[in-house]
Amino acid sequence: MRSDQELLEKQYFRWMKLGPWYAMFPMQFALETIETHTKRGQAVLDPFMGRGTTLAAATMLGRNSAGVEINPIAWIYAKTKMNMASKQDVLARLHEVGKKATRTQIPELPEFFEWCFCPSVLKFLITAQKVLDWENNAVDRTLMAIILVDLHGKESTSLSNQMRQTKAMSPTYSINWWRKNDMPVKHKDPIALLSAKIEWRYAYEHPTHKTSSLAIFGDSTIDIVQTQPLAPYHLLLTSPPYYKVINYNYDQWIRRWMLGGPNHPVFSGGKHQSVFGNQGEYQKLLEDTFLGSVPLLHDRAKLVIRTDARAFTLETTIDTLEKVFPNKSISRIDRPVLGKTQTELFNNQVDTPGEIDILLKPRQRRTPRVG
Ligand SMILES: C[S@@+](CC[C@H](N)C(=O)[O-])C[C@H]1O[C@@H](n2cnc3c(N)ncnc32)[C@H](O)[C@@H]1O
Predict the structure, then answer these.
(1) To test the ligand 1 pocket, which listed residue (49, 223, 290) has its Cβ within 8 A of the most ligand atoms?
(2) Ligand 1 centre from 184 Cα, in Å?
(3) Is the pLDDT of residue 8 over 80?
(4) Where does the pLDDT of residue 19 fall: very low under 50, low under 70, confident under 90, or very high at 90 and above?
(5) Which domain holds residue 253?
(6) Are residues 42 and 189 in the same domain?
(7) What is the pTM of this model?
(8) Whose CA is nearest to atom 7 of ligand 1?
């Protein structure tokens, strides 16, 4: 019995933390919150799901779960956690793409790419970019998730020249840095490197989920309705993007390129895919998303919202919640910052005053007086 439990924990550890992402929940926080506010078999909703920590924690605790994510990188991580393909299929696909890559011509690309990836890696990446149907096919998506995690990072362990894993630096900054430190790109075998990553990820096989989940690729202001099949939700646990803190597009430009985006950093990747710097739009994002969640929630549902302690984000979030959920009581859970905040977990240099958790509970029902 104990060894079954240990095996499960090892499997989950390898899969459930998949994907470097911004401002992600510490897993322990998601586990504790879900355990405190829901029972086994109930369902949890996360409209800003990121890399899917809420869904992963809910699944580990035997709860159903659903989430929405607009950024394709984070969605691939989340969806892969909930529906990973078998090791044999992923390895077979890797070799298939590797074979095709030997016949691929490298197109004209900015100088950055010659410094960042050796020719065999670049051929492999360009081929994978063309052939992997990550949106519709679980094998292709699992392989893409594994490629994205180590697309850039330490020179010795990733597909790239030396770079931060969590944030893609700008081309000019990177080239200057590699030049100054005399670091031309070294030869790497992408198939050997990725095979080792796959072996590590599947070292304890992969967990077989016994609960239901829906990881929706879309815009929560519109697509939250797609989580209807698992409603009613007893807990909404989420962390909306913070106003003016992170650009989920610019800082991830190499991974966005890998998924078919431009071959240089761009400030905006479309609606809700920039720095959330417009107050009116930010307010509307929260309002539309929370309003959309109302019909999906159980009437006794609780909500836990983790957000930035800075004034505009915090005040807008509380005002919106008060307006949308007039029948719930609102309290703040001020936590002493134990260890790193979730923005620091991402290695963000921004000076942050920390995070605040907001708890919404149904108001006590009045018991009618007798006599
Ligand atoms: C603070 S992060 C959430 C991180 C998440 N708690 C985790 O553990 O990974 C906020 C997320 O909201 C996503 N987002 C922003 N606008 C969105 C929208 N309109 N619909 C869905 N997701 C959105 C961002 O792409 C980002 O991944």
Answers:
(1) 49
(2) 36
(3) no
(4) very high
(5) 2-82+209-362
(6) no
(7) 0.92
(8) 24
